[in-house]
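Worked example 2:
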Amino acid sequence: MSYGSRIKTKLTRPNSEKLSVCFRWQLAIGVIGIFSILQNALAGGFVVGPAWVSQDNLLPPEDIVDHDYGKSVAVSGDTIVVGAPQDAFDNFISGAVHVYQLNVNDDWSHIAKITGPEGELFQSFGRAIAIEHDTIVVSAIEVNNPNPALGIIFVYERDSNNQWNETGRIQSADIAPLDNFGSSVGISNNVIIVGAYFAETIGSVYVFEQEENGEWIEVQKLDPPVGNENEQFGRSINIDHGRIIVGAPGNDLFGANSGSAHFFSQDERGLWSHESEIFSPEPQEDWRFGWSVSVQDESVIVGSLGVSETPFGPRRGVAHVFRHNAARDWEFESELLPKNTGELDGFGIQATIAGDNAIVSSLTSLSGRVHFFSRIGSESWYELNSLAISDGSTLDGFGASLALEGNIALVGEHHSQQLASGGAYVFNLSLLSLGDFNDDLQINGADLAILLAQWGPCELSGRDDCPEDLNHDGIVNGGDLAHLLSNWSGD
């Protein structure tokens, strides 16, 4: 498969007469820009984020047609897991999870396929997954008990022989078949959280901790302080080092389905308490703020499906970034939108954040598109790139699931149509720096020539995109030249 990741610019030799007139001015402006970059860096961090390069498409060594492969993805260190909840065994659709590990050649090798216990009936095994170090959390639906369609969570741990073994099962005593227990899961520091966004018509999140004997026990049930019917509290959840964020896209405080997100923090006694609730900076009815959430350290991203301007028309979504300020409040930092406004359909359906990087999915043309953002400076976010499968068809679902850790970004391609296989794509931000316009993995003279050929206001280029405008100020000038030279890597 090929990607429409970047507009290619045909490399031509610059006109020597034009260069002889303006090249000195270009160099002078570039030098000024470089000094500006250095000054900002010394003052505390103007960092140019890298672009994203596809590293691999992870596919297991078997036929995965109609397996819903890529419905869920997760990454931790050198291990990636991909859910295939429609995988069939003995003509029964039970589901599976595939495990990949980074080998000595920096390639991702398929090392295991995990399925539900033999002899027991489960469905949608792998519909939601999470991983931390040597522990994998897998959600499934139990079908062979007196209450069919009851959610259940399996825990697997890696042993010294690199084998994954079931070490625990998690269920809450008060869940009901239609609670959707396990629709979302998360794990951090031996704490597992499980969302059940239909529980008691409002939604709940269950917290489990591992005891010294290895058993997972329920320690707390989290609910919104004031909930409304169909709030969908727990539709999206995330946990990071003593902090939990819960999306409630059905919250009605600012109109039906305006949405909100709740924070819970863990005190010194180990108890989880409600910390705060945040809303869209401009809340409105049917905005569905909280459809997707992600937290890492002091940064949070919240996706909103947005509203439709016409009946049954596309939803114009958005993602918002918040930061924990000195007063320990969550302060709105930035609104993330795609540069191409034609890609707003369902923007925010999935969103994740790690450090100064974020990924947001959209449903453009129902085939899906993924947008990569980077924080430049203390609070400014810019879209570095957006990707779609160039031969993708309707219902491809590229970006249906996302995961991000360090330099590794993972994008799931969940197919909704029959006779489709899905996929999981790895992107490594360390492979390429911002300014490699010809995708040769180097920042060199060829890229400099491309940048100089596009000198001036972006609107004069007649293109939908302006990749040479590295600082996104609407003009290709000395500031962009300074960015390119700061990433220089070859002749």
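The CA atoms of residues 76 and 133 lie 6 Å apart. Helices lie at 16-44, 445-453, 478-486.
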